[in-house]
Amino acid sequence: MTVHTSTRRRRTALAAALVCGAATLTALPAGASAEPAPAAATFTDDFDGPAGSAVDGAKWQIETGDNVNNHERQYYTSGNNNAALDGQGNLVITARKENPGNYQCWYGTCEYTSARLNTAGKFTQTYGHVEARMKVPRGQGMWPAFWMLGADIGDVGWPQSGEIDVMENVGFEPSTVHGTLHGPGYSGSGGIGAGYTLPGGEAFADKFHTFAVDWSPDKVTWSVDGNVYQTRTPADLGGKQWVFDKPFFLILNLAVGGYWPGDPDGSTTFPQQLVVDYVHVTTNDGAAPGS
């Protein structure tokens, strides 16, 4: 996501960063070799639980409200109204063309509902392998995203906080996803990133795919299904400030409409769903793509 709601600017006490520590090797016998240390899991949610239940409140908080800055059309609701487990190990974020609560948006009475979750105040990390396996929705105006924001956003604001978009998809590009960095002097449409397109006209909504970043000091690498498609370093910023060496928190959401995807039209069917199999964060000790 490229512009942020007022809820992201709320000051909040954020959890201490889980920073990867270097492992100490002991002496090895002559002729022996050291095996790479396995990646250590620091955040895991496999979304196991009864159908209809809400996400784990110890791991996620649910944001509510609209988003005037992006001119999105949805109202993000609380609880399990638009974000619930399906009983089969998935989180389902559902966008509906409805307004049962008479919610009011920046443009008047809201036309759609959806959900947005984040780990602010519950989980942050500096560096590591950040991965989610998901199946995105389809249709004009759909805008699913898996991304991260600097945990200091309440103090320094956006884009100084930094933003790492692991995956964004806009409905008019069904075969392409985007990975982007946003920071001071390179935010919004000026973000630094690239797209990844599936071969043969396959759509990302057809099946599950795995989206990941490998993040280390002065380096972020993006992959889809293990295929690395871009790496960014401070050299890509043209002298602008690199703001990605500090704690970040995670965000999952499904927006409807906005400046980038455009609004739904007569071809868009509802409800639409972002189905999330898991979200895993590990240290970079293992041999993950691009690490």
Task: Jot down its keywords.
single chain, 7-stranded antiparallel β-sheet, disordered C terminus, mainly beta, disordered N terminus, 8-stranded antiparallel β-sheet, 1 helix, 19 strands, 291 residues
Please provide a written account of the structure:
This protein is mostly beta strands and 291 residues long. The chain has one helix and 19 strands. The protein has one helix at residues 153-156; strands spanning 41-45, 61-63, 74-76, 83-85, 91-95, 104-105, 108-109, 112-114, 116-118, 128-135, 142-150, 163-168, 176-182, 192-197, 209-216, 219-224, 227-232, 248-256, 272-282. The strands form four sheets. Strands 1, 4, 5, 10, 15, 16, 17 and 19 form an eight-stranded antiparallel sheet that branches. The radius of gyration is 19 Å and the shape is globular. It starts with 40 loop residues before the first strand and ends in a 9-residue tail after the last strand. Residues 3-35 and 286-291 have low confidence and may be disordered.
